[in-house]
Amino acid sequence: MHARAAVLVEPGRYEVREFKIPEPEPGAVLVKNELSGICGTDKHTYQGFTSQYGGASLASSTPFPIIQGHENVGTVTALNGPTYDFDGDRLEEGDRVIVSPNLTCKRCYACMHGYPVAMCSNLRDYGNTISASEPPHLFGGWAEYMYAFPGSFIIRVPDDLPSNVAVLTEVFAVTASLDRAKRNSELPSDASLFDDTVVIYGVGPLGLCHVIKARMLGAGTIIAVDLSDRRLEYASRIGADHTINASRVDVDQKLEFVRDLTHGRGADVVVECAGVPDVIPTCIDLLRPGGVLLEAGNFSDLGTVSISPHKHLCSKGISLFGVPGQEPAAYAPSMRQMARYRKSYPVDELVSERFSLTRTKEAVEWAVDPGSLKVVIDPWAAE
User: Fold this and answer.
1) Within a domain: 383
2) Contact in structure between 214 and 238 (CB atoms under 8 Å)
3) Preceding amide of 324 cis, omega within 30
4) φ/ψ of residue 206, rounded to 5
């Protein structure tokens, strides 16, 4: 038997290819993919921005050809011997699961000392850094089946969380940065987000998940900034108090708006999710003195930007946190909280469009468009 997959042969070019469905080696898992999200990183790779992890010990460049898709939900369809999920429970065929994209070596300095998974010296990522030319080939979610190596972080999906929401889990897990960043601030009042003014700069899927998380954590005023009226309208429906369409106001007007809301101080927290290096100085300017900037959007190398160490760092005394990705330990809590949140907010509507494997190029190009929300690949959709 064979499985179809959308293969990115080179930037800008997809081919639907077939690969033999493999038998799992001991400890490996074969997953039948149900849905797979299109991430900002996927869009950048498609556009030719292929350099990632540039500040880590193992910088990488996309090894074409590749099967993309690292935001996946599917069903265990084959096992070889006892295999366990992230909580230590034995996996069974038929379990609905998410496979964390990060495959760590578990032996390097970073792994042995409890560093975030993105700092593993031998890190490999499903849907991102494992070539489809490497047997057994099926290492991404834009395929009918996916092969998970022994040692993969596999998390069960709660029964009360539908797959069209569960597919957001990897993105939502990145918001764990909000839990940690304020605890590391130098100001004693910054132990949590409670009643803080939070700016989410860029409300594509990653930014929208940060809106949800900030609201969950008790933020006082949430301000969403984006170029898309559709995204801003949805941000309002899931927790944002104010919205700014960045295409209609200049930098000074953004600063004036935020300062008017905060008695001239500026925001307590700004989360950069636009993935545009040029907005970093603006994000810092929006902060109050001693505020916190979370940089979550520039995972791919899209270039550099100049800031003033005097004006933006020393004199302002901000805390700046780079967010290298998600953590496997954040997956199960994220799913449980999304299951609760969807009872009061329209989270189910965030996945707005589904595309088949043969329409992958069209799907990615639509995901690039600021008019989209969350676009996913459905490997089993009718052509």
Assistant:
1) no
2) no
3) no
4) -65, -45
Six token digits for residue 5: 């997959």
Q: Which domain holds residue 229?
A: 175-322
Closest CA to 130 of 73, 68, 54: 68
The separation between the first and the last C-alpha atoms of the chain, rounded to the nearest angstrom, is: 20
> Phi and psi for 225 in degrees, rounded to 5?
-120, 130
Q: Are residues 305 and 264 in the same domain?
A: yes
Say what the pLDDT of residue 324 is.
84
Residue of 325, 22, 326, 331 lying closest to 154 (CA atoms): 331
For the stretch 309-323, pLDDT in tens is: 888 888 898 989 988
Residues 59 and 184 in one domain: no
pTM beyond 0.90: the answer is: yes
Tell me the torsion sign for CA atoms 197, 203, 206, 212.
positive
| Angstrom distance (rounded) from CA 326 to CA 124 | 14
Could you tell me the two tokens for 217?
């954590």
Can you give the pLDDT at residue 60?
66
Read off the pLDDT of residues 61-98 as tens digits, 9 standing for 90 and up.
Answer: 789 999 999 999 999 999 999 999 999 999 999 999 99
Let me know whether 237 and 310 are in one domain. Answer: yes
Name every residue whose Cβ is closer than 8 Å to that of residue 33 and which is 6 or more positions away in sequence. 69, 72, 73, 74, 141, 142, 143, 144, 145, 146, 379
Beta pairing, strands 154-156 & 242-245: unpaired
CA angle 181, 280, 283 (to 5 degrees): 65
What is the separation of C-alpha 142 from the centre of its chain, rounded to a whole number of angstroms? Answer: 16
